[in-house]
Amino acid sequence: MPATKEQIADAFRRHVERFGYSKASVEEVAAELGISKRTVYQHFSSKRDIYAYVVDRIATEQREQLTALIASEPTYRARMERFLTLVVGGMRRHIQETEKADWMQEFEIAYDAMAGAYGAIGTQLVSEGFKAGEFAFGDAYLANELIGAMVTHYGVLVREDRDYDADAEVVAAIMRMLGGPSPKRERRR
User: Fold this and answer.
1) Tens of pLDDT along 55-98?
2) Contact 147, 83 (CB under 8 A)
3) What CATH architecture applies to the domain 54-178?
4) Which residue, of 5, 8, 37, 176, has the greatest Cβ tally within 10 A?
5) Is the Cβ–Cβ distance between 122 and 80 less than 8 Å?
6) Boundaries of CATH 1.10.357 in the chain?
């Protein structure tokens, strides 16, 4: 029985997780599934196409997971801060676990899918938070683009120095950019 697109994608994902993107091969995926490379290429145009499909599926899963994880936070500010903390920390850990060359290849392929998934959450949080008076930044699209640029550049810094950990500072800078009411502080007597 010929392999399905999903089976090929699952096998490719396992190979990338085990060997990294650059060492994962269509030939080995086909061999694992007992199919020919030709069968793989009936479903996908290239190795890059397989990985893009895998990343789209991962992005959808992560979007659902992140949405569930932040839902219990009481305010849009708290949801945004938790969301950013999860995204930035997850990105840093992924970079630290991935070979430098592989990370660049993976990033180039995965950026659109991840930016779309995370961007949808961020845009919604900014928009709803602005309407609720929790953010001063009212242009949700621009905020999402700026957040994406800040997080991406932070990823480049971490890629260059894998021990670099400024997650809290990045999240704090983004929250300051979004503006809004400051948390209430107790008065000193």
Assistant:
1) 889 888 989 999 999 999 999 999 999 999 999 998 888 888 77
2) no
3) Orthogonal Bundle (1.10)
4) 8
5) yes
6) 54-178
Residues whose CB is less than 8 angstroms from the CB of residue 172 and which lie 6 or more positions away in sequence, other chains included? none
Do 35 and 3 form a contact (C-beta atoms < 8 A)?
yes
Q: How many Å apart are CA 56 and CA 116, to the nearest integer?
A: 9
Distances (CA, A) of 30 to 3, 65, 95: 9, 31, 28
- Is residue 168 packed enough to be buried (19+ CB in 10 Å), middle (13-18) or exposed (0-12)? exposed
Please return the burial class of 88, using the count of CB atoms within 10 Å of its CB with bins 0-12, 13-18 and 19+. buried
CA 64 to chain centre: 12
CATH class of 5-43: mainly alpha
Calpha distance 148→138 (Å, rounded): 16
Can you state the angle between helices 5-19 and 47-70, rounded to 10 degrees? Answer: 80
Structure tokens at 108: 């180039």
Domain with CATH 1.10.10 in the chain: 5-43
pTM exceeds 0.85 for this model: no
Q: Please measure the distance between the N-terminal and C-terminal CA atoms of the chain and give it in whole angstroms.
A: 77
